[in-house]
Design brief:
By secondary structure, the protein is mostly helical. It has four helices and two strands. A two-stranded antiparallel ribbon has the order 1-2. The longest helix has 26 residues. The two termini are about 35 Å apart.
Amino acid sequence: MPDTPATPDNRRRRPTTCQWCGKAIESSGRGRPRKYCSATCRQRAYEQRHNLSGRPIPADAVVITPERAEQLRDGLFEVRCAAEDVATAAGEGAGAAELEGLCSELVALARRVEKLR
């Protein structure tokens, strides 16, 4: 399938994601593309930029609570364990059905961790 050129019409119809929460934003096709899905996300992004100005923290740094960091660490550990299970099963000559099940579990875990934005 050939790539379509990135004309202004194609770019405006392409869904983007909120720069704060990651939620998909559907473009109306008119005006400047939106960066945030809501006024709340726009405000949170402003607050983070404002609170970081004049400090040695990079402006693109992501500040999260200790609880959220722990959830992220736990989720990444689960993903690593699931990936190791797939590698072990493949090394031991597991059947396609077993590998498919392990891969499905790995993908589900990765998607869950990805939602921890």
